Every structure is written in structure tokens, then in C-alpha cells.
Amino acid sequence: MMKYDFTLYLVGLTEITEDAADALFEAGCDDASPASRDGQVWSTFHREAASLEEAIRSAVRDVNKAGYQVQRIELDTDAVAELIGVS
Fold it and tell me: Which of 2, 33, 45, 59 lies 20 to 30 Å from 11 when distance is taken between CA atoms?
């Protein structure tokens, strides 16, 4: 298993409240750091999984379980380059 870093941007929220953060944590997003600024909410994940796809799919599933939807996914280009062996 490897750890993968990526960020999920959420819709339906304009700020990360304590209730929203708790809901995400309880839904399985305990490996993420939620944040917000200028009406945009996101959660940066450090997820362990067998593949990047599995990590992202499970994180999206957990966000949905918390009652929120994912607007977009952002990958750290340096981490992806390292993952595929390109420098």
C-alpha cells in the first residue's frame, strides 16, 4: 500500500464549519485536512490505498457518505511525477 496526496473540492458548502468537519471525519475522512477560503471548501487527503484510483474513489465515496458532493479533484503534479517515475 502507498499513500497518495490529492485534494477534493466540495460543492454545497461555502465554509468548513465544525459540523461539516465532524461529518467528514465520521464518514471516514480522518486522513484529510478540510479547509475553506473565499466561499470554496476543499479537503486535502493523504490516503493509503493499493492505487491512486482506489484512493480517490474511496475518498469520494466517504465525502458522499458525509452528505457532500465533489466538484473537482486536484492532484499534486510533483507527487504524480514521482509516482510515475518522471522528474
Answer: 2
